[in-house]
Specification:
Length: 681
Amino acid sequence: MQRSPSLSLFLGFTSFSLLASSIALAQQDESNARFSLGNIEVINVEGERGADWSTPFQATLRAQDMRLFERNDVSSALSLLPGVTVQNVGARSEKLVYIRGFNSRQVPLFIDGVPVYVPYDGNFDLSRLLTFDVAEINVGKGFSSVLYGANTLGGSINVVSRRPEEGFRAHLRSGLYLDDDKDNQSSNHLLTLENASADWYVQGNLSWSEQDFFTLPDEFTPTAVEDGGRRDNSATEDMKLSLKLGYTPNATDEYALSYQRQEGEKNTPPYAGSDPGFRARFWRWPEYDKESLYFISRTALGEDEYMRVRIYRDTFYNLLRSFDDENYTSQDRPYAFNSVYDDYSYGASVELGSTRFENHNLRAALQYKRDVHRENDVGAPVEKMEDALLSLGLEDTWNLSPDLSLITGLGWDRQQGKRADDLQGTTLLAFPVATANAWNTQAALNYSIDENWSTHASISRRTRFPTMKDRYSYRLGTAIPNPGLDPEYAVNLEVGINGNLVLAQGRQIHVSAALFRSRIDDTIESITVAPTLCTSAPCSQLQNIGRQENSGVELALTAALGANIEVHGNYTYLDRDNVSSPQVLPLDTPQNKLFAYMQYSPIPQLDLVLSAQHESKRFSATNGSRQTGSFTTTDFKAIWHFTDQVQLEAGGRNLGDELYAFEEGFPEAGRTWFLNANLDF
């Protein structure tokens, strides 16, 4: 059998790793390599894995968690957490997330505290963000720092990169994913080089991920455009380069310049469901690229104050090609096109902090951001849209006593439309632009009952501005734009308890529970209007007419059963009600979600990890005509530590070959086997 290039690369790398194990120099704990300048904390609460996943105000996923559970992109990593579910926008081949019923536009993404989203629609495909160079991911659910700025209606997601430690370090990783026939369906590779001294550090990461196909479960029933087996049009490729240069002149000051370039290519598998009214799309993105340059600094202003500065520029470029049919060769039909999005954002923020006043930690931030969207079908005029965002936030943590702290925050945001082109035929006209203002307030109490238990309660009022797409899109002739849309706003409530049950022989079980409820008003919903107002039927318009309520409970438990066994389980119950339109069903979220794992180390050199995830059904159409079934998947991983610096990993995902989907008609991969090799020196 002829080896694929990826298999040859993996085998060569494995041989090199085993040879290098005898000369490997040092291992660094990835959990200690966090780029602290990129972090924004409401309150600092840290613990062990599992406990970190459910701490008050901010849940944290660390690098070792993502590696242990083979979560190589941000969307799959986030699904480990209670309250978080993956959303698959199948028609666009995008993976997003819901957090307690809030979608990705309502829970924005940040990288090292810098807001990251495509300016036009407010989203970014989280499956394109690889986790190989990530130190941790911080998730605020409902209650998050006002210093993040605008649009944190339901929380925030901050992806924090690595920072070099003292001395030289190199990390190599190579992985293969195989189907049941042992055919190589995808691979990923990573090279990290970094060096740090007392005054300087430098870091470079190069990662590459390629998927030729993924294989559908055996139970899949073929359709007109999908015959089963290898999923049609499922190839993807991502290459990411990141560089970081830092200067630390003393113990309190730090200045860092970061550059990231990601070049991607992805295809959209066609709809393979049973709804005859859902038309399959034959789409490919030959270019899906992102480039970022940002500077972050922290300077002490005496003993009690500091100043943190962020300056950044992001560019997003993608080319979408829509073809006639599953042959992907011709573009003659009316729905065939070549569309270019060429967007960019730039901005800056200044944060000031002070501990001058006894028992108070005061912080204030001023932010400015400019979003620019440019789009055109190839050969047509370029449409341009532009917004300016201004945010001011003030936050205080007041330690009322050694056991009780009060966190308060106040924020003000302004969205100012600067330009919005309206293409009519071949003529560029202009939409009217508007300015909107929004206030955000919040308060929380955290009380330590004793050395083992704490309880908390929080309330926040947060807002989200409508995106450019919300305000100006004709949605392929089926909608009327509404440039005057107002912000959505939500009131989020939470009460919870965290603690350790102390057992015999000093063993502990970490337990957490949280009750949450959110009321969202002025929600942006689509209403049906006269079909004569659009060029295609049916015709609709987005308006601020909705009211929704999300409520539920999160439970988590982590226990060490002896010195070499750890178990964990987290459960989420979510109830979403469309109060203003009860007949409109909530989309893309299950009512019940459970994740559990067991980690067992029979000998010091071997780690065995078994995990399972269950999710109940979810709706993919607001009238209930499309829905997924409930599912349970199981994964397994074995890690052999040749030394502290060299590990080999093997395992399987979806071991039961479960036929499941996050959106009806877009099934996920069946049983998959993987092999990884890791080398640190």
